[in-house]
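Risk register update: the risk of archive-format incompatibility is retired. Evidence:
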Amino acid sequence: MFTFLVKRLMQALVVMFVISIVAFSIQDNLGDPLRELVGQSVSDAERQALRDELGLNDPFLTKYTRFVTNALHGDLGTSYFFKRPALDVILEKLVATLELVFGASVLIVFISIPLGVYSAIRPKSWFTKFVMAVSSVGISVPVFLTAILLMYLFSIELGWLPSYGRGQTVDLLGWESGYFTLDGLKHLILPCVSLASIMLPLFIRLVRSEMLEVLSSEYIKFAKAKGLAMKKVYYQHALKNTMLPVLTVGGVQIGTMVAYTILTETVFQWPGTGFLFLEAINRVDTPLITAYVIFVGLIFVVTNTIVDLLYGLINPTVNLTGKGS
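Archived output:
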């Protein structure tokens, strides 16, 4: 386990190095940040002086070396717009994004597992065919279209739920969240459902296919031959082994959902990191853009490593080091 952890940490460093280069390289292609900082009334000489002061005229290698040196000390740059450290701005908005990810994850778990298991146990029932048809359509529909349809139906036509914003939040033990108020919960429903629609069809089909494969294995046939109750066979023996690959994919998709919140937050004007990222692009706030890309990349790397470790702990027969016994 220790050898695997060291190996993964080395791989993580390489991945983060590549991400930092890519994120930093796109800065010069996003436009001129001075356009948003000083407007049109500033002379060219003053613009050049400000560019020198901000280090925008330095060679790429000089700028990148300075950025990496500062990043190793926890400084990912200062936002041009907010006049604050970019990492502090991202962490401030991260709570709202994690609310959506948490809500969407809960919906995915409590809907995909029962539907996937049922579809595997009763593959020829009409309900299974309906679930598979809906999941096929769900995979094809982009998240922003789902969000717009939900907003139109439940906010505009029926007027049941709010269409934008985070709603009322309450600070509980240092966590300011909308989960603790009725208004906050109402504002969370549509964005969480929209975000969950990205992964829900995938997980339903994944649970079903893994469950079907497990049910066709020899030890399940042997358990049936022994006369064990079918509920015990399905939910104690088969479901446990079905969840191992689902756990692996699920951990990766958590990082994916953090990145996918961009579209959901834009439609619902949700004040999270995704909406912040789009605003940073519009303002050419390059330090904030770079910090966001690196931060999301770090989430992917960390979640992948944790999932691999959990996989080895849940299933000790998995050889994490890749070496023979």
